[in-house]
Amino acid sequence: MDVVQRLNQHHPKVIDLSLERIERLLERLGNPEDQLPPVIHIAGTNGKGSSLAFMRAIAEAADLKVHAYTSPHLVTFNERIRIAGEIISDQALLDLIDEVETVIADHGGDEPITFFEITTAIALLAFSRTPADLVLLETGLGGRLDATNVIQRPAVTALTPISHDHAGFLGDDLAGIAFEKAAIMKPGVACVTTKQDPIVLDVIRGFAEDVDAPLIVEDENWWVAIKGEQLTVMTPEGEIEPPLPALPGPHQLQNAGLAIVAMAALGDDRITRQAVAKGMSNVEWPARLQKLTRGPLIEKLPDNWELWLDGGHNPAAGKAIAATLKNWPGDAIEKPLHLITGLINTKDPSGYLAPFKDHAETLTTVTIPGEEASISAEDLSKIAGELGFAARPAQSVSDAIDQIRAEEKVPARILICGSLYLAGIILKDNN
């Protein structure tokens, strides 16, 4: 039995968001959440993982030991938990699972707990037992009732752009979604936020006032811009001019800026300008407009073709990726773009796909292998066709590439996109 299957055995049939279950479990584990290094807690809809990756790169460039908690994983469950810079080992993970499950069993074992809650408990327990300088903690969904919101006194909180997503849990009301995510703010703890929809920003301001949290707002208290081959970030502590970030796309400039300002808000003298510069150049984050360079799918392509991968999956992600298409990284020669797309049924397929309409020559849809919640290739193709795409289904990503190759007569660019689940499968098979 793999780790995901094992932990899902504790999962209630219907997820009811609550902090009570994880609080009880953490108390039985000795409250590891109260025994951590300084924590940066990150919430939002888009850009959480990328912003965290920038923060980690900056901190590690400063020789800080960093714990990190992210979700979902792409290839292996272990990716969710980094201990002092290293992905948790299989043995350490299994030992922690055994320990947590024993505690659950010793207290009756019949109280359900969600997959994310037990995973968060395991991560916090691991973090509490290994010395480090910083914890980077990403919410799963929401914020107020997210399992990570057991941290009562983070060092800094950070909010990435907030928009519609996870409607089944957070609803369709943007102000309500903003309230849930803003609720990671804590009294007296600085919160750094990107630019937000006016409705969202009003909610954030109100929450900050209610809990007396200093608010550091993009385009009011901090700014980010490009100056030549450098990034210019104006923070409350002064101007920083690091290299352009290694992660491509204009949306990554904002994520980089948020990370730089949040790290500055820590007030740690070890976070130097040199560390920021090195972090911008060294940052890595798989499946975020990642160019694939090896594997069986690459071997299918003629010379001068390109294969890219992105796991963005909601309308805001679609807009961000489409904006990148206007100035594709390293694009010395413009190439026709072909999309291969799979989506799960909790997302908004029309909202995600619409921004690509004027950029893609074709769109080939696939059913995500092994994912029960996947929209079928046939249904997704119909949705894309109604949006005006030259769309068709394929049995697999490999078959989709074969179709594109057979039809396209010049060197082209293929982007596989729409789902982190699909991205994980591609990375597993092509690394």
CATH topology category name of the largest domain: UDP-N-acetylmuramoyl-L-alanine:D-glutamate ligase
What is the β-strand count? Answer: 17
**Distance between termini?**
24 Å
| Average pLDDT, all residues | 92
Verbal overview:
- The structure is a single chain.
- Helix content is about 40%, strand content about 15%.
- The chain has 16 helices and 17 strands.
- The strands form 3 sheets. Strands 4-3-2-5-1-6-7-8 form an 8-stranded mixed β-sheet, sandwiched between helices. The protein has a 6-stranded mixed β-sheet with strand order 12-13-17-14-15-16.
- A hairpin with a 2-residue loop joins strand 9 (about 225) and strand 10.
- The protein has about 425 residues and is an alpha/beta fold.
- The chain has 2 domains: about 5-280, UDP-N-acetylmuramoyl-L-alanine:D-glutamate ligase (3-Layer(aba) Sandwich), CATH 3.40.1190.10; about 290-430, Protein-Tyrosine Phosphatase, Chain A (Alpha-Beta Complex), CATH 3.90.190.20.
- It is globular and about 60 Å long.
- Helix 2 runs parallel beside helix 5 and helix 3 (about 50-60) packs across helix 10.
List keywords for this structure.
UDP-N-acetylmuramoyl-L-alanine:D-glutamate ligase, single chain, 2 domains, alpha/beta, Protein-Tyrosine Phosphatase, Chain A, 17 strands, eight-stranded mixed β-sheet, 431 residues
